[in-house]
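Subject — a protein and its fold
Fields — amino acid sequence, structure tokens
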Amino acid sequence: MSSQTSGGATPRPGGSDAPIRPGGPDAPTPPNGPDASTPPGGSDAPTPPNGPDAPTPPNGPDAPTPPNGPDASIPPGGSDAYGDEPLPTPVTRAGQEGLAALLARPDKALIALDFDGTLAPIVADPEQARAHPGALPALAALAPKVAAVAVITGRPAAVAVRNGGFAGAPGLERLVVLGHYGAERWDARSGKVTAPDPHPGVHAVRAELPVLLEGTGTWVEDKGRAVAVHTRRAPDPQAAFEALRVPLTALATRHGLIVEPGRMVLELRPPGIDKGVALTGFAREIGAGSVLYGGDDLGDLPAYAAVDSLRADGTPGLLVCSGSDEVTELRKRADLVVNGPEGVVRLLAALANRTD
């Protein structure tokens, strides 16, 4: 889920407050200077199949075929290609009211989304996760019509920005990424990440994990402000997941941390921060009149609870589940279930085509 590994994070040149360049924090300076606008494929890049003015796919001309097949990405028509599809109807009255409020006053609506499993397909190696090819066009079409778009993720903010291709994306000039469950914040306006000092317990568990995990076939992702133990690569991922829950919880408790379970991952992180706290704070900050939240994993349940609380206080909300066979809890709580990141993209594009 991050480009950082158990060996420690590599600091970005200029420090954590340095602007993230459009190609990501590690992107090389263009040959004609930092302000040069060299096309993504270089001066010798082939002409796109739909003509010289056709947009380059968000992940580059050589982006792999989407995991759901070649027709899964948004066609050459951009978000308008999904415009004729009917907007799905939420199965709950509260969800229907949330969608109606969003459509009636999009300028007061907050669109908040998880990253992995929601905007990006889940992959075996979290470092290789990238946003669905249609995510940027759909977000860019919707963002100017709503009050705000926020990505709320357990990843470091800079990693989500890089893997999502958000920096410098046209139409996303007001995007906010709340990383580490809200402990970090990246604003597209400044291109900077702001964050407090890390919890000391993270350093302590990082030092003890190698002995505890020896021979388990697991992989440790060092997120800087949290440490995640992935079992997806173990011989029996589910058995490893269950076997490690108790010892990892004991380790986390001893150092003042908590364990957040996810899809074949156990994350050790500081208490008091979660996606619900992040969502509530940001919704209040912008004075949201309605809230849509989309997620796919157990870490999104606090955000679901936050939407329920906002509803109780009079702010309509819509809970969207990016469906998978690995997590059923969100399906039961959601107002609307869509077919993974592809379904999320279609929903965002449909909303963009139905809001003014």
